[in-house]
Amino acid sequence: MKLSGQIVWITDADSPGGKALLLRMAAEGASLLLGSDSGGRELESELAQVRQAGSQAFVYTIDDWRSAEVAQMLAEAAKELGPVDVLIHNRNLVRPISVENGEEDVFREVMNANAKSAFVCAKEAGKQMTAREAGKIIFVGSIHAEKPTGMSFAYSASKGAVKMLAREAAVTLGRHGIEVYSIELGPAEGDDDVFRSDLSGLYDSYRYKVPNAVLGTHEDLAELALFLASGEARYLNGTDIRMDGGFLLHYLDFKMKRPAATGGDAT
């Protein structure tokens, strides 16, 4: 097993991506530290599968953008599981907000959830990893670190911050044997609703803007994260990996591949 004996910390395990991540990591022998805003209620089925696989799970509920709370939680988790080997930061809060008339409270909420928590979690996990001169930090980011959403500038700003945080962390934490990666995740099922915009047509017919007209899944994310968490990605420190099936290439305005039922591929 690729992660046997490893402790993997996954923030926001309640999300679809979080569930896919935790199941894949447990299948490879990892014990899990899981952030759950529901206190584990939304993870009952997944936790049963984790334990059936012979892995341990420590579930917590805190504000993971507050240093004191994160530090205390990690100290408690270390007593049960041990120190963290891999951090997968998976926060992905989207709130509609415009530059023209957005509220500061909404901006602060999104930045705290997505960007500040990334910094705090990396800092605190980095302390444990530095002590052992080894570790992996994987930030699940977004293509909107590069491409505006048209409906939430705060989301784009937060993911842009995470992208640069990953690069800075790779330089500094890399001196202690810690590898840092950023995954710029592209569209999945339902993202046309999540990023619905009166300003941008980016998500209009979005599945057909992927060159092969096949959207990615959270299981695809989990497979990439597993590769990065394993020893196979040793020489990729500081790497940004865009995982969008080629979605952002559509600005070239090629004809979209459409199923015959929608009128063929001549659009």
Automatic annotation (TrEMBL):
InterPro entries according to UniProt: NAD(P)-bd_dom_sf, Sc_DH/Rdtase_CS, SDR_fam
Keywords, comma-separated and alphabetical: Oxidoreductase
Pfam families listed in its UniProt record: adh_short_C2 (PF13561)
Recorded GO MF terms: oxidoreductase activity
Gene3D superfamilies: NAD(P)-binding Rossmann-like Domain
Family from the record: Belongs to the short-chain dehydrogenases/reductases (SDR) family.
UniProt name for this protein: SDR family oxidoreductase
Organism: Cohnella zeiphila
